[in-house]
Design brief:
Strand content: under 5%
Structural class: mainly alpha
Order of helices and strands: HHHH
């Protein structure tokens, strides 16, 4: 189910929302309870170790949530 294309879209969306809301990487890391360097790795589209749980945590930190819909 999880593939690199989806991961790239999520990373792009996540970064765009941070930019739109003027949230720095330092602030985002604080909201997530992680380090800035860990956040930088998570935002890296070449990183293949991101999990759905991590994405949920990150999106919750910016007021968003994950919704998976099967149609």
């Amino acid at each position: 189910f999880w593939n690199k294309d989806l991961e790239n879209v999520v990373c792009f969306f996540w970064g765009s929302i941070m930019e739109e809301k003027h949230i720095t990487k330092t602030e985002m890391a604080k909201r997530m309870g992680t380090s800035r360097s860990a956040l930088t790795r998570l935002l890296d589209p070449l990183n293949n170790s991101i999990t759905l749980a991590t994405i949920e945590t990150a999106l919750a930190a910016i007021g968003k949530r994950v919704q998976i819909q099967i149609v």
